[in-house]
Amino acid sequence: MVKQVSDRAEFNKIIGQDKYTFVNFTASWCGPCKKIDPVFEKLAEEHQGIDFIKVDVDEAAEIARWAGIHAAPTFILFHGGEQAGETIGAKPSALHALIAKTGEA
Fold first, then answer.
1. Which of 14, 30, 57, 76 is catalytic?
2. Domains of the chain, CATH where assigned
3. Which of 2, 76, 93, 98 could lock onto 52 through a cystine, CB 3.0 to 4.6 A?
């Protein structure tokens, strides 16, 4: 299941865990975001050992600024609070490549 996060403290707690967290930085007005959403949701169902969260860049601008988000969708993989990978755009193959970095592929 993908959790929507807009609170910075909650975001920091989730990404700071000693497990992988896959973050979808998205926006309600973004066409490519809507197109890739089902792929992200399916990955969340298939990889229960990874936390999957969404951050709306408009609703959570502070988090987006902290993460250096300049385009939507942007996907960042975190582990223990550190960035472990990133991809920009609605490319399913790039999402699968990030998942492969976790060893859960």
1. 30
2. 2-100 (3.40.30.10)
3. 2
Catalytic residue from among 5, 14, 15, 33: 33
105 — pLDDT class (breaks 50, 70, 90):
low
**What is the rounded CA–CA span in Å between residue 31 and residue 36?**
9
pTM of the entire predicted model: 0.96
Q: Assess contact for 53 and 2: CB atoms under 8 A.
A: yes
Q: Is 24 a catalytic residue?
A: no
Please give the Cα distance from 82 to 56 (Å, whole number): 20
pLDDT at 104 over 90: no
Ranges assigned E (strand) in 40-104: 51-56, 74-79, 82-88
> What's the pLDDT tens digit per position in 16-31?
999 999 999 999 999 9
